[in-house]
Specification:
Order of helices and strands: HHEEEEEEEH
Number of helices: 3
Number of strands: 7
Radius of gyration: 18 Å
Length: about 180
């Protein structure tokens, strides 16, 4: 279930350019369209070969109460991720932590439910957001204008999990280039 939510969140972070193609060489006027999103940029800063499971050490995971994982997952779409489970004895209190490497969107490209709050984690620019459906809180750590690492806590009320996501992000941030 959570993997499906994470897949939805990951796929929701893309954007499209709207409009109709016009052949070059003239002979007509272009239809007017309005887009609420900026066109997708295909250039990204090079990102070292980051491994999401390596960004949260076993001692750091243990300090967060992790009971299982890491489990590396690759959804494709330039977003490999790793997840850990925190079992608190009941489904309502348990949650999943995940670390995503996002190589096709920076902080300005985050798709969220509600407002995106700019924050700092260490000396790094970051953002806190609630994912679609309100089930996940994400702390996005900037690597470059078009790359970031998302540290997420999900499995219930995303807003209540933001402190947990921030604690995890504080442990991931020193591992980043």
């Amino acid at each position: 279930m959570f993997v499906a939510v994470l897949a939805l969140v990951a796929s929701a972070c893309t954007s499209e350019q709207t409009g109709s193609p016009i052949p070059s060489g003239g002979g007509g006027t272009a239809p007017t369209t309005t887009s609420t999103r900026a066109p997708k940029t295909t250039t990204t800063a090079p990102v070292p070969a980051l491994k999401p499971c390596a960004l949260l050490s076993s001692s750091a995971a243990k300090s967060l109460g992790v009971t299982s994982g890491p489990d590396e997952v690759d959804l494709g779409k330039k977003r490999p991720y790793c997840e850990w489970r925190v079992d608190k004895g009941s489904i309502a209190d348990s949650y999943t932590l995940a670390v995503y490497i996002v190589t096709d969107g920076g902080l300005a490209d985050i798709v969220a439910e509600g407002e995106i709050e700019p924050i700092k984690v260490g000396s790094r620019s970051a953002a806190q957001s609630i994912g679609p459906g309100g089930l996940v809180c994400a702390i996005s750590l900037e690597l470059s204008e078009k790359t970031r690492v998302d540290v997420q806590a999900g499995g219930g009320d995303g807003q209540k999990l933001c402190a947990t996501a921030l604690d995890a992000a504080k442990l991931v941030e020193p591992e980043l280039p």
